[in-house]
Amino acid sequence: MAARRTIFITGAGIGGLTASLALANKGFRVVVLEKAERLEEVGAGLQLSPNASRILIELGLNDRLSRRAVMPEAISIMSVRAGGELLRVPLGKEASERAGAPYWVIHRADLQAALADAVDAHPDIDLRLGCHFEDFASHARGLTVVHRRGNERRQDVGLALIGADGVWSTVRNHLYPEAQPQFSGLIAWRGTLEARQLPREYTAPRVQLWMGPNAHLVAYPISAGRQINLVAVLPGTWNRPGWSEPGDEQELRNAFEAAGWTGTVRMLIGAVDSWRKWALFSMREDCGWYQGAVALLGDAVHGMLPFAAQGAGMAIEDAAVLAHVLSERPAESSQVVAALKRYERLRRSRVARVQRLAARQGRIYHLTGPMALARDLTIKALGPQRMLARQRWIYDWRL
Ligand SMILES: Cc1cc2nc3c(=O)[nH]c(=O)nc-3n(C[C@H](O)[C@H](O)[C@H](O)COP(=O)(O)OP(=O)(O)OC[C@H]3O[C@@H](n4cnc5c(N)ncnc54)[C@H](O)[C@@H]3O)c2cc1C
User: Which of 44, 64, 367, 378 could lock 371 by a disulfide, CB 3.0 to 4.6 Å apart?
Assistant: First the structure.
């Protein structure tokens, strides 16, 4: 197909793969450049609320995903100070039916594999692994994209370039070198354990959020319920980029001993054999979204703290909006800039609101002393239905 219908995407993460499917379904030819030699099974659990699962289902992924995802019946909000559950926010079938799509929790590798299978099966998507994006040049016919595989450098011409290359984005560095991710002073630790290792009461299909002094723990089942995914978040100074640094389990155990956490939390943490950690970085809200025929998507433009569980969800929404705006206009380079301007207008304020919510929730989860007491009383007074209603602006979003 002609270069004038070709869109380049840098990055085959959740955002890049979803964007490739959404764009190919609108009639574009898509080339995805991914620097990794293979799509690794890195990461652990991701939460997909209805705003995101709806898009994935519309892309034809329901069968592939529902086999591996778990639909939690509720989110249990637990307080260490109160010694147990404050509130159970219903998420199950009824809430999914109301929202018109399920709330899923899933292993990142399962989501990536489902997207990659659909990409492989699509005749208009060319996924090039081991291929590093390096540079681009704009001209009247569109863009020339420069990429490298091993020692071989290549140039291709396309209509637009989408930087879906994560929080350490190379594309963003070309557009906005001054916009850099900020370290939050927090470190996330993730581990998984086999569900059969635990007593039944801990393996219910539920997201458990444990809030404690200066730390929190989230636990939920993944891999069709066979595994439990744990993420613990603590303050720290270690701030190297990356997703999979081995973590010292004793350091984590000590942190949860010292803070006076309940036996359940200690039992869950003690049952994990190996921990991986990643430093939590986020982008400022004022990062630009596009320049000319080059746009950013997902973590590249709005890497956020994970405390609203919307990092993957916002990347998936970006992908759907981007495909929509680009298909609304004739595929000509003069129209692409106007489409990307509209993309930014449709995305910027919603995503910034989610980024702020995530940062605020992190502060609330880690409160201490009288502030923690006030938090617990407020959550209890709100009750499950009002708590769920506060999430509707996120879950009920539609294109
Ligand atoms: C390996 C990995 C593990 C993760 N684990 C977790 C987890 O356990 N829990 C969680 O909540 N979130 C995790 N995340 C983050 C989560 O996937 C994202 O926040 C969210 O899905 C949005 O993704 P994205 O597509 O915008 O970016 P990402 O998922 O970061 O994907 C970016 C992709 O771009 C590729 N790339 C980068 N630079 C170049 C280049 N120059 N040329 C070509 N390709 C390039 C990267 O290799 C990567 O595949 C992980 C991300 C990665 C990459």
Answer: 367
Residue minimizing CA distance to atom 3 of ligand 1 = 43
Query: Which residue from 293, 384, 397 is spatially nearest to 351, judged by alpha carbons?
Result: 397
Q: Up-side HSE of residue 393: CA atoms within 13 Å toward CB? A: 8
User: DSSP letter at 70?
Assistant: B
Residue recorded with tokens 């659909």: 118
Quote the pTM value: 0.96
HEC string for 148-187: EECCEEEEEEECEEEECCCCCCHHHHHHCCCCCCEEEEEE
CB-based burial label for 5 (10 Å; 0-12, 13-18, 19+): middle
273/315 Cα distance (integer angstroms):
31
Q: Is 220 a catalytic residue?
A: yes
Residues 1-26: pLDDT tens digits?
456 799 999 999 999 999 999 999 99
How would CATH label the architecture of 3-42+113-181+283-359?
3-Layer(bba) Sandwich (3.50)
Q: Is 43 in the pocket of ligand 1 (CB under 6 A)?
A: yes
Tell me the two tokens of residue 307.
Answer: 């405390």
Q: Is the CB of 33 under 6 A from ligand 1?
A: yes
Distance CA 216, CA 273 (A): 19
CA angle 354, 66, 303 (to 5 degrees): 25
**How far, rounded to the nearest angstrom, does the alpha carbon of residue 262 sit from its chain's CA centroid?**
29
CA 169–ligand 1 middle distance (angstroms)? 10
- 150-185 confidence digits (pLDDT tens): 999 999 999 999 999 999 999 999 999 999 999 999
Report the C-alpha gap between 245 and 261 in whole angstroms. 25
d(CA 254, CA 257): 5
pLDDT in tens, 203-239: 889 999 999 999 999 999 888 889 899 999 999 999 9
259 CB burial (10 A radius; 0-12, 13-18, 19+):
middle
